[in-house]
Amino acid sequence: MDLFEYQGKQLFAAAGIPVLPSRLASSVAEAERVATDLGFPLAVKAQVLSGGRGKVGGVRVVGGRDELHKAAADILSLTIKDKPVRAVLLETGARVLRELYLAITLDRRAKRPLLMFSTRGGMDIEAVAKDEPAALTRLLLDPLCGPSEAQIAQTLAAAQLGDEVLDAQLAELLIRAWALYRERDATLLEINPLAVVGGPAPAGRPAAGATPPAPSLVALDAKLNIDDNALYRQPELAAMRPDEDEREKAAREAGVTYLTLEGDLGVLGNGAGLVMSTLDLIGAAGGKAADFCDVGGGARAERIAAALDIICSDTRVRALLINIFGGITRGDEVARGVLAWREHTDVRLPLVVRLDGSNAEEGRRILAAAALEGMQATENALEAVEAAVAAARQAPGPSRGSGGA
After folding, report:
1. Domain extents for the chain?
2. Is 50 exceeded by the pLDDT of residue 283?
3. Which of 167, 193, 212, 354 could covalently link to 99 via disulfide, CB atoms 3.0 to 4.6 Å apart?
4. Annotation says 101 is catalytic
5. Entry pTM
6. Active-site residue flag, 183
């Protein structure tokens, strides 16, 4: 479960991780009322469960009411990566001296928590890891004890803050971040940027003789992902679940794992590993997936049909790829789900079905007998991916009648 920035900052503040004063607003008028309380300058930040908001104008710094009015109106009208912006977070301004990066996540290969730290904050950390791997400190943590004294010292050395007070703040912040990550059953806690701030805000005018505040660490952003499987023991967080993406909400209700991505090829598979490898194959073939959709093991025809409805409710989708390696998921059930879906929808997208494993031959026979327009079936994964990517590239757009799915 992903949380919005404002929700993450509420949890940060409760855990003792320093954040700037901020308030949420869902309209321009409400933003103006908030600004009266907070004062200027302010950062106006789109609240959307998507990265890259700053690149599309979703974060702006304003110094007065006229600027605020325009910025709030513009940001609230945005749709960022297919997600509409329904609220903005207004945060008091600060003079940023340095931007750092801090995250705790799960290293699935090592089966241990992983602390990541970099002095290249504010950037895409994936690009830092690729282009400057030495700039990213990676430390595997003890899952019971968290960061050791030696690991904290290693992080401080990497930060090169050059200030005993800031070193002490960072050490304390690492401990508090670990406690929040562990106690809230998080799978990701990310602060980017973790900023060193100090002095008056950019538009501020300190009083004569006043001493600017000493530099300090502040979390300027907050990203928290919570383990869905642990929500039964996190009722407070479960009640905070954002329902921004209607497809993801529908998927939860149908027992399907679904995440919206950025491409135009709809993807359905059984098992997270298979779906992830399918996404890799799509990328290698020059395509881009529109979603991550895992129907799980043993999916019956009804779940297959429901998953296809959810995928095709995304109007960016130009073609569909179903990749099933049957174990407890039977190929004939998948085929019946595809036919049931086509019977109740007027969506006519190119469809490639790869069936292998349990009852796969029967499933391919059922699909061949149905002779669905625009559909092809195969038992070869690479062949299926290449055909689906080509279909998405060639398709002029989704073919949907007035009664679409």
Report:
1. 21-92, 96-200+213-238, 246-394
2. yes
3. 193
4. yes
5. 0.72
6. no
